[in-house]
Amino acid sequence: SLAGFGELMQDVLWCFSQVKGTVDTGVTEADIISTVEFNHTGELLATGDKGGRVVIFQREQESKNQPHRRGEYNVYSTFQSHEPEFDYLKSLEIEEKINKIRWLPQQNAAYFLLSTNDKTVKLWKVSERDKRPEGYNLKDEDGRLRDPSMITVLRVPVLRPMDLMVEATPRRVFANAHTYHINSISVNSDYETYMSADDLRINLWNFEITNQSFNIVDIKPANMEELTEVITAAEFHPHHCNTFVYSSSKGTIRLCDMRTAALCDRHAKFFEEPEDPSNRSFFSEIISSISDVKFSHSGRYIMTRDYLTVKVWDLNMENRPIETYQVHDYLRSKLCSLYENDCIFDKFECVWNGSDSVIMTGSYNNFFRMFDRNTKRDVTLEASRENSKPRAILKPRKVCVGGKRRKDEISVDSLDFSKKILHTAWHPSENIIAVAATNNLYIFQDKVN
Amino acid sequence: MFVRGLKRKCFDGEEDIEGTLAGIKAIPSYNLQRQSLLDMSLVKLQLCHMLVEPNLCRSVLIANTVRQIQEEMTQDGTWQMINTQSTGQASLDRLVSTDILCRSSREQAEGKHVPGYSTFTKDFEGDQAQDNSETMSTASSVQAPRNLQSNVWEMENPQENKGNFQKSLDQIFETLENKSPNSVEELFSEVDNSYYDLDTMLTGMMSNTKMGHCDGLETFSSPSTTTSNSNCKSDLNELDHIVEILVES
C-alpha cells in the first residue's frame, strides 16, 4: 500500500525485514557497500561495494502460504564489475569501488544496469539461462570435438531444460572519457543515452557507442589556479530528455537544457539560497556543498542534500528552496571536530518515496531520517542488529542535545561517527527501503496488518 | 568581513564561554584557533598525495577554507605575525619530513635516480647545522649536485607529478612565510597541474621552468633581485632557501 496518496496519513510503522552481510566486528574494506539501487519495478535490488563487486537481490514471488513473508529479497546474481587499475602515466591507483549503479528500464527478458567506478562506466546484461542446446554435430556432450570424417548422420540440436543460471556479461565499456573522478551517472528518459559526471565535466553517451562521448558541461577553468568549485552530482529529468541538473560544492544547482547549445555551460536555471549571515563560519561553504541531487518522480521538484540539511526545491523558484529539513543540526556546534576527522566531507545521499510525499536520508550512528512533506513529521530510525528480529517494529530514536538525557536518548558525544548511513534506496511503489550500513544491507518494510 | 562578536561562534566549545572576562580571553583564543585551523587545513592538503588520486572536491573545499582564513588574516593585519622565529623552526622540521616523504615516494618511482638524490640529502643534513653565515659555502656545494638534479628533472617527465609534489609542498610552507595573497592559488595550481591533466601537466612544466635552477641560483647570487612574488626568497630563512633551489624544477 502506498503511503500518503491523498488520504489521511497514518504514521507508517517500519519493521525489520532482512539484513545481508556478515556480523563480523572487523569489517573488510572491500565489503563496504558504496551504492544501493532498486530497479524500476522494485523486483531487483542492486548493491555495489568497495571491492568492485555488484550483488543483485531479487524479490521472491509472494506466496499465499506465507503471506507474512511479503516477498523477501534473495541473492540473484553476484559479479565482479570493476577491478583495481593502475594509471602508469600518473603513478596512481584507480579504485575499483563502485560509485553508482543505475538500472535501465526493462525492455526484454534480460536486465541491464550501468555501474561505474572513478573512471569507467560499464553496461552489464543480467540474464537467465534455464535451457541449453544438446545434440551438436561437431562436438559431443563433453564438448570434445568430433572427427568430421566419422559423422554419418546430421541431427538438429534441441533445447533441453537445465538448472536456472543467472549470467552477468559486460556488454559495453565506456572508458577513457574522464580525467577526474566520476560521481554520478544518470539514464535519460529516451533510454538511448545517459550521462556521466565527474568533478569538472559531464559527458553524454549513447549506449551503442563506446568510443565517443559528447561533453555537455565543462567547468574546468583555463587556469587551474582559479578552480574554486566542482560538480558534485548530476541527474536527468525523469520525463524531459533534454533537461538535466547538476549540483556544486558551493551549494548551487544548475538546470540545463540541451536544446539550447551543444555545450551547456550556460544554465537555464540557477538555484541558490542566500546565505544566512548569522550562521556564517569558516565551515559555511563546506557544509553548503551539495552531496546529492534527485528529481522527484513527478519531475516538479528537486531535492538536495548538504551536510546538515535536506532541501526541496520547486523548479519554478530559483531563489530559495520551498522546504528545508534539519537532518542533524546538533552537529553544527561540532563542525571543527568533524573537519578535523574528515567527517565533514562525508557525502550523504537522499531519496524520494514512490509518491514523493516522504524523503529519506542517512546520518551517523547508523541512524537514518525520514521526513513526511505533508504532515511535517519526521522520524529517526536505526539500522542495527539489535533491532533485527523478524518483523520487529523499529523504535524511533532521539538524540539528546543538552540538558537531561532521557532513558532512551543518546547524547551527541556518544554518537559513533564511523557508522554512517550514506546510501539508502526506496522501492518505487511500495514502502520497502534498503539501508546500507557499512558492510550490511538492511531491508525494512512497513507493518502488515 | 565578520563582526567580532559573531566570530566566536565559529569554533567548538566557544558557546560555553560566558561572562566578559572569558569573553576577553576568547579574542586571542580565536586567533589561535584560526591559526590551528589554518595549520590543520594545510596538513590536510599535504596528506592528499597518497597512492590514489586525491579527492578533488575535498581539496577544493579545504583550499577555499585556507584562502578564506588568509583573506581574513590579511584584513586583520595578523598575517604579518606569522613570519616569526618559532614558525621558521617549525617549517624547517616540516621541510625535513617533506624530504623523507619525497624520498620514500621517489624510491618506488625512480630506482636509478635515488643514489644521486640521497647523496644530496646527506649533504643537506650535514648543512642543517650550519648557520646563515656559511650559506655561501653551502651554495657552492649545492651547485655540484645541481646538474644531477637538473638531469633528474628533465628525465622525469612521466614522474613529473612527484617532482611537483615536492615543489607544491614547499610552496605550502612557503605560503606561511610568503605574504603574497596569490600564494594559495599557486599552491593549488601546482597540486592540480601535477595530478589531473596531461595537457596542463606539461604546460605546468613549461611554466615551472621560469622558477628553474638558473632563476633560483641567480636569485641566490644576487639576493636583491626579486622578480615575481614566487621568487620572494629574501624573506625566507637561508636554509629553507637552499632547499627551495634544490627541489625547484
TrEMBL record, chain A:
Domain of life: Eukaryota
Name of the protein described by the UniProt record: Serine/threonine-protein phosphatase 2A 55 kDa regulatory subunit B
Gene Ontology cellular-component annotations: protein phosphatase type 2A complex
Keyword Repeat in annotation: yes
InterPro entries given in the database record: PP2A_PR55, PP2A_PR55_CS, WD40/YVTN_repeat-like_dom_sf, WD40_repeat_dom_sf, WD40_rpt
Gene3D superfamilies, A to Z: YVTN repeat-like/Quinoprotein amine dehydrogenase (2.130.10.10)
GO molecular function, one term: protein phosphatase regulator activity
Name of the gene: Ppp2r2b
Entry similarity comment: Belongs to the phosphatase 2A regulatory subunit B family.
Keywords: Repeat, WD repeat
SMART domains the record matches: WD40
PROSITE patterns: PR55_1, PR55_2
From TrEMBL, chain B:
Alphabetized Pfam families for the sequence: SERTA
Domain SERTA: from-to ranges: 30-77
InterPro entries: E2F-SERTA_domain_protein (IPR052262), SERTA_dom (IPR009263)
A single cellular component GO annotation: nucleus
Residues spanning the membrane: none
UniProt-recorded name of the protein: CDCA4 protein
